[in-house]
């Protein structure tokens, strides 16, 4: 628990008591950085105040069809327990709205570590890592799954908070606790996610809607042999199979990539790869992504030849999978990176899932690598059977932010968006944009 106390103290030290004006048009802090042959322009589009907009965004953002951004913060809000926020486009700027402040206790969650996603009904869905009244998980509870909906009628107020509905409170060892991974829907509207901890080593779970209620069932209980502590959440392919990573466990105790396949009324787990903590990398805290051919792409936070983590590909070959090392990061940072939740490893490499564009390029962030040891945003481009690495931006730890633990998303114009968990004008983190 010492790692957890250290992290909570780290986060608390970054929670500002500044009162947040609910509507702010954030002027882009244009840093106009040309770090490659093809110049990219980096801008901060929001500085978190620590008030109702939140503080310390450990997760990334989600975009709606209008180009507005939504995300969560681990801290800040009316009770300093985290928020869900919106950044709405307004001309050349952005308007920040605090959609919801978590209150904790037996009836709400606190300290979300995953981003929110849109469901089939247009509502936002997400998890809070703690909350509820089960004593087995400690005084802060076991965590929960929630839904947020906009006001039912037109809101004339400057700020229009959304309405929260609790879908499920976790109970502890029986169904898992401490949900950290991103949620995913299947074609039938069922919801899937992971808890980092549980009876043995975390769980994969399903929430099935029935009218206004949701029924939770455990898809799989992880053990040391299969890999455990699935921090990074799940993704689904067109056949309904689920994929993810465990940050530890497996044959070499350095984490795994796993696949869950429906088998009759249950699920069967297979392990396409066991990490060895060598040139292949170790401790894959983030989840994975799939391309249209069914290849799996992901990253590790540590190990590799350069000690800074790796980017890898797993290609299906009959009943087996072929591992390919795409890139190895060289560690420039040897201290303790920010360590959200109970991550077993706080290496300098990527701590969030990669993003692939239509051309097959991969984008991601490193937690505390880069030229200034404050993290960076990178791109990997396939070329002649290999991959070309480009650092799109290196964070300095000042007004531009520090320690990006989020994924990267791309809009239809090729602009990139993400968060940095610290730094900025109030040292509470930022939302950034890179324009091509």
How would you describe what is shown here?
The structure is a single chain. The protein has 436 residues and is mostly beta strands. Helix content is 3%, strand content 41%. A five-stranded antiparallel beta sheet has the order 1-2-32-31-30, with no helix packed on it. Strands 13, 14, 15, 16 and 17 form a five-stranded antiparallel beta sheet that branches. The longest helix is centred in the first third of the chain and has 11 residues, at 2-12.
What distinguishing features does this structure have?
3% helix; five-stranded antiparallel beta sheet; globular; 436 residues; mainly beta
Average pLDDT score = 89
* Strand segment count: 32
**Shape, please?**
globular
Tell me the major beta sheet. 5 strands, antiparallel
Percent range for helical residues? under 10%
Quaternary organisation:
single chain
- Tell me the radius of gyration: 20 Å
Return residue spans where pLDDT drops below 50 for at least 5 consecutive residues: 1-38
Q: Distance N terminus to C terminus?
A: 43 Å
Structural class designation: mainly beta
Treating each run of at least 4 consecutive H or I residues as one helix, how many helices?
1
Strand content: 35-45%
**What is the topology, as strand order, of the major beta sheet?**
1-2-32-31-30
């Amino acid at each position: 628990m010492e790692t957890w106390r250290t992290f909570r103290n780290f986060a608390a030290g970054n929670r500002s008591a500044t009162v947040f004006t609910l509507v702010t048009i954030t002027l882009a802090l244009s840093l106009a950085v040309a770090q490659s042959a093809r110049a990219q322009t980096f801008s901060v589009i929001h500085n978190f105040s620590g008030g109702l907009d939140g503080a310390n965004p450990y997760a990334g953002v989600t975009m709606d069809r209008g180009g507005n951004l939504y995300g969560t913060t681990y801290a800040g809000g009316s009770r300093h327990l985290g928020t869900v926020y919106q950044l709405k486009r307004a001309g050349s700027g952005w308007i920040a709205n605090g959609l919801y402040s978590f209150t904790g206790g037996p009836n709400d969650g606190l300290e979300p570590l995953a981003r929110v996603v849109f469901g089939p009904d247009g509502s936002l869905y997400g998890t809070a890592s703690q909350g509820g009244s089960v004593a087995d998980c400690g005084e802060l509870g076991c965590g929960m799954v929630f839904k947020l909906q906009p006001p039912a009628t037109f809101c004339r107020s400057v700020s229009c908070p959304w309405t929260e509905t609790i879908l499920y409170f976790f109970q502890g060892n029986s169904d898992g606790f401490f949900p950290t991974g991103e949620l995913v829907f299947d074609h039938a509207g069922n919801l899937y996610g992971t808890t980092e901890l549980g009876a043995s080593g975390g769980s994969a779970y399903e929430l099935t809607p029935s009218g206004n209620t949701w029924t939770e069932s455990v898809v799989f209980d992880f053990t040391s042999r299969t890999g455990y502590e699935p921090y990074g959440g799940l993704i689904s392919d067109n056949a309904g199979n689920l994929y993810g990573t465990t940050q530890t466990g497996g044959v070499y105790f350095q984490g795994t990539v796993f696949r869950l396949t429906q088998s009759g009324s249950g699920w069967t787990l297979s392990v396409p790869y066991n990490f060895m903590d060598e040139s292949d990398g170790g401790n894959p805290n983030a989840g994975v992504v799939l391309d249209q051919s069914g290849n799996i792409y992901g990253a590790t936070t540590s190990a590799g030849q350069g000690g800074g983590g790796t980017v890898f590909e797993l290609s299906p070959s009959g009943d087996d999978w072929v591992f390919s090392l795409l890139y190895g990061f060289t560690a420039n940072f040897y201290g303790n990176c920010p360590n959200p939740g109970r991550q077993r490893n706080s290496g300098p490499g990527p701590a969030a899932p990669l993003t692939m564009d239509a051309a097959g390029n991969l984008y991601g962030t490193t937690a505390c690598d880069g030229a200034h040891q404050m993290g960076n945003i990178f791109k990997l481009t396939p070329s002649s059977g290999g991959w070309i690495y480009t650092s799109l931006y290196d964070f300095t730890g000042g007004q531009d932010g520090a320690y990006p633990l989020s994924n990267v998303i791309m809009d239809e114009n090729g602009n990139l968006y993400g968060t940095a968990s610290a730094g900025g004008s109030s040292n509470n983190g930022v939302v950034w944009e890179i324009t091509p």
